[in-house]
Amino acid sequence: MIEMNTIYKSLVEIVDEEYVSNRKEDLYIYSQDPGMMEPHEPEYVVMPRTTEEVEKIAKLANDKKIPIVPVGGSLSLSGLVIPHHGGIVVDLKRMDQVLEVNEKSRYVIIEAGVTTGKLKAYLEKNHPDLRFSIPDAPPSATVVGNIVIHGQGRLTQQYGFNSDMVTGLEVVLPTGEVCKIGSGSVSPYWFSLAPLPDLAGLFLGWFGTTGIITKLGLKLYPKKKIRDIEVFVVEDPNLVPDVINRVTHTEMAEDIFIGAQPYPPVFKDIIMIGMLLTGDSEDEIEFKRKMIWDALRIHIDSKEGGFMMMTPSIKQDLLEMPTSSTTRFADVMKGGGFEYCGPIIPVEKFPEAFQKLLEITTKYGITYGNACRIIGRSHCMMFSFGYPFNRADPENVERTKSALHDTNVASLDIGGVPWKPEVPAQKMIMEKMDKNTLELMNRIKKVLDPNGIMNPGNWEVE
Amino acid sequence: MMFEYADQIHRCFRCGFCKFPSDFTDLNCPSYNRFRFESFSTGGRLWLIWAWLKGEIEWSNHLAKVVFSCTTCKNCVEQCPMKFSEDIIDWIVGTRMDMVEKSLVPTQISEFLDNIYKYGNPWGLPRNERDSWAEGINRYTSGDEYLFYVGCAGSYETQGQRMAKAFADFLKSTGKSFGILGSEEDCDGNEVFYVGEKGLFQELVKKNIDKFNELDVKKIVTLSPHAYNSMKNKYLGLGEIEVVHYTQLLLEMIQKGEIQLKELNAKVTYHDPCFLGRYNEIYDIPREILKNIPGIELIEMERNRQNSFCCGGGSGNFVFDLLGRSEDSPSRIRVREAHGTGAEILIITCPSCYCMLDEAIKTEKLEGILTLKDISELVKESLEKI
Predict the structure, then answer these.
(1) Could you tell me where the beta strands, DSSP code E, fall in B103-152?
(2) Best mutation site among A94, A111, A140 for testing chain B: the one with the most B CBs within 10 Å?
(3) Surface-to-core class of residue B152, CB atoms within 10 Å of its CB (0-12 exposed, 13-18 middle, 19+ buried)
(4) Nearest CB to B17: which of A24, A324, A392?
């Protein structure tokens, strides 16, 4: 108790009493995310405002060997910021400033707590010709949180994972040192990670187990004046890889996503492939539309697929950024929850993954929503096995958990890798991982985090 | 009360849309903005309520603070993408009713309710001081066109009294027949309802309606949007009595040509009160009034209309102020936003907002830089202009 009081007092000295809590209610909220992983309470929640404060918190935690869990929007649904071993949750959302936009070199520097909603609004107001790759997460998701989990967004088909768009980082190491990564480490300009050794990889995809990202440099892209969407519909999942291949060959679409769901019945048995078109003029849009129509002519002529007519409201819904339809999926069963496994898979594996989705949902008697995003020019795809559940119905929760387990197994079986995997899925991945790779991960963690304080439980090599 | 919602409240996914205005420019939930712990966001609050209902956490003063610091400003209702969004305030008020019923409320809340029960106002001030501001204003008598319902903030708070006086003087100057209830006026009960004292609210409704009927009132004009909201939407049995907010009457008189407004050169910005705006969708009327004053330039704050940022005073917080004492207090954020527009005058149409924002202007040291004015004060100035 004395030690706990000392830690509480130390945290108060760092960030002020207003922003430290060991109250039951706050600990309860930070013990879980909206997914279905088991909750575990921290001992403290602290909300720093500056890198210096994060530095002091890290030093304190390292000195006392207390676990520390950096938190953004807590929206991975995989429990990645559940403090499995207790300790200090560091909620970074007070670090919410957009620090710099370089219009000519098209990058932005932001603090770790800037939400996707805030960055979108900031750019629209101050730099209307620039945009970033907005994920399908709610606007309260932080940009850094999305980067740390290798998130994807509206520009992913053109430019890769959102983490591929990083130009620089500021990181507080588990031992308290502050490091800059990328050109920002030698120059005032945060334009690129290259040509230096790529140290950003030590922090991306590690879920906060190697350090706390406090600032991020991110690529911005030209924002076109007009956006539109076409949706191509097929019934046979085996056609999807070819459709994707043909559309990506044109390089005319900005974003390509795939969706399938059994409800409402009008959508049953069809697979929708959405292609976003952007341009600075109607002529540009029409040109792109024609190129895509021509590329898919073969499937239209064979009557295997066709473009869907859309009402303006459906179009508006599909064009919305950040989208609210993903969130609304949580209310499909009036149960307040959905969980999904979104493995990254080769595009040609779509039919196999789709078959697995149907098998698993039939086996467990649950419904689904399938939402995929093409990453790069068909270099791979995120295939989402999405399951709404009723958090007030323990039996339904258990069934969905079992379905999630089977989905992780299936994802690995077909050659994919679960995206932002929850702890059990991380273990499955590590079991299958090349042993030397696993040992390399282990060594890196030990070097950076000698006391094992950073978000323990995640990427934990046993 | 809560049992009505207990099987629904788990539906909140905690997505966080409710924290923002529709364009995501800034945080728009007053309590989350003030405290920044997830517990004080709407989602966090609903999850804690559900945890309390399930017995996973026990009642505590801090839980009560989380529940009662919601100003019921309805930003969450406006922004939540879920089908149940319209129910969110009912869930929070239902929880409060449960807590009140079980006497599980912090001292300042129970004092607030006790004072209204005993004295008809939340400060426990004597009833006979209710019309201390109203020298020369007649008591309502049968046959008067309007009962001017002043409300608690208008009767007792200095800023509210200024508003009441300005509007009453204006009515007098136009020759409208009206009167007030003076010391016979009782609390309208809006805050009592949203704080969760259903029994007291029903008692106040009955007392007020009985009084209105006894005096054969046909039309009521309210100073406060809170009173307007409760009478308009929650007073069952009000019958044919017409209720308007004073801005509606002002605009009607302007449009009928009953008053001639003269030029006033000023840059102003307007703060939408939650109970006028989001609760009753009255957004255009105050703006129309301003448009009708020659020389007035209205500069909108970034967060306006459905996206307006609450002053922090709703659900009794203009009295017990659970969101106060910080530079992140909503009222201080709001006056900084108003100042940022370049306006010289911040126009309000609610006495609770007037109290909250007036204090904030002083704390932010904006006195003499940003002036707070009730819209009828501005109209009065325009009328008096030579």
Answers:
(1) 146-149
(2) A140
(3) buried
(4) A324
- Chain A CB contacts of B56 under 8 Å are 28
Partner residue facing B48 (CB), from A21, A25, A337: A25
B10 touches chain A (CB under 8 A): yes
B37 to A26: CB separation less than 8 angstroms, yes or no: yes
B84 touches chain A (CB under 8 A): yes
Mutate to test the interface with B, among A29, A142, A328 (most CBs of B within 10 A): A29
> How many angstroms separate the CA atoms of A374 and A10, rounded?
47
Domains of chain A: 1-223+422-462 (3.30.465.10), 226-419 (3.40.462.10)
Question: For each of chain B's 386 residues, which pLDDT tens digit applies?
Answer: 566 788 999 999 999 999 999 999 999 999 999 999 999 999 999 999 999 999 999 999 999 999 999 999 999 999 999 999 999 999 999 999 999 999 999 999 999 999 999 999 999 999 999 999 999 999 999 999 999 999 999 999 999 999 999 999 999 999 999 999 999 999 999 999 999 999 999 999 999 999 999 999 999 999 999 999 999 999 999 999 999 999 999 999 999 999 999 999 999 999 999 999 999 999 999 999 999 999 999 999 999 999 999 999 999 999 999 999 999 999 999 999 999 999 999 999 999 999 999 999 999 999 999 999 999 999 999 998 75
Note the CATH number of domain B126-252: 3.40.50
Contact A45 B37 (CB under 8 A): yes
User: Please, what CATH class does the domain formed by B260-384 belong to?
Assistant: alpha beta
Domain layout of chain B by residue ranges: 2-105, 126-252, 260-384
Q: Does B265 touch chain A (CB under 8 A)?
A: no
